[in-house]
Amino acid sequence: MNHKIVLKSISLIAIILFMSCQQKPISTCKNPAGFEIKRGTNLSHWLSQDFGWEEKYTYVNEKDIQFISEAGFDHVRIPVDEIELWDEDGNKVEEAFEYLHACLEWCKKYDLNAIVDLHTIRSHHFNASNEGGHNTLWTDVEAQDQFVDLWKQLSAELKDYPVSKVAYELMNEAVAPEHDDWNKLINRGIAEIRKNEPNRVIVVGANMWQIAPNLQYLKLPKEDKNIILSFHTYSPMLFTHYTANWTPLENYVGDVNYPGPIISEEEYNANVDSTDEGTFQFYQEARENWGPDRILEGFKMGIDFADSLNLQLFCGEFGCMPTVPRKARLQYYSDLITVLEQNEVAWCNWEYKGDFGIYFWDSENIKSGEADTEFIDILLQFKQE
What we know:
alpha/beta, TIM Barrel, 2 domains, eight-stranded parallel beta barrel, two-stranded antiparallel ribbon, 13 helices, 39% helix, 14% strand, globular
């Protein structure tokens, strides 16, 4: 055999493999566990924030997972709440765990990866300040120990699922008074999981509602590459949460639009209250010229930080309510998806069902209607690439 031909063949194969990796989405080349994600949807209001919109455990079923897969998504994020999985005495709610396992088996059947997200716990809710609650997690040592114990139990429950198919998200939208409060808890949670699962992918978000600029303040185990960095984006809030009654902006009912300034100067002057810190920044934000460039500006620091650590970046939540003009809403989604895709950021829209969902929302009867195929096509416009 001609050795020169063999060497040339080997070199050619190496070049092809290298180029193949370079051309794959960021999700295929970052974590050693091989947990790949690119486009997903959140299974909200099921094992988390159950508002009783439909029958409790059948709100998400096997047909839903099949639909998600066939539509072209590659993963789901499964929010779970402490109050759904454990009773007040700390005992497991067996039926809830059975449905969690069933969902993971459905995902396996229909080739979807899954992120199990500890969404709220009894000592911490991301929206406590707007819902009359109070977070004790950051001042109560027993609550912090309980958080770590929840992950000890979840890890023991889920450890047999392949690391290439199931990942864990430590907690949704931490709202700690100091970044280091969250860092300390992150590292305790990771250390607990790593005792029995050294290769499980762990999703970690930034402090203060998981905003991208705060990713830079994370302090993570330096040698652990089975970590995905996560951020959420709902900017501009006056547009995406128009009339949402769980926000301080619920009373604004003037016109909104996208792209460009979300509100006119006339609307701004008539509604802004510069003494109200809870709303002032959102009205200021709404005056800016919104489009792809402004969207990217909101999480560019997160992209740069993830690149500096050679870790995958994941937008685990984004969405816009259907209370705004439909044309403007769909344009916003199209621009946001384009920016995420162009910057190789994996994403998971909020949400599958619900008022942000990929089904038409019946606000009068509080239920999802038919699938919004135009909306789904916009979300998945890059799926052939």
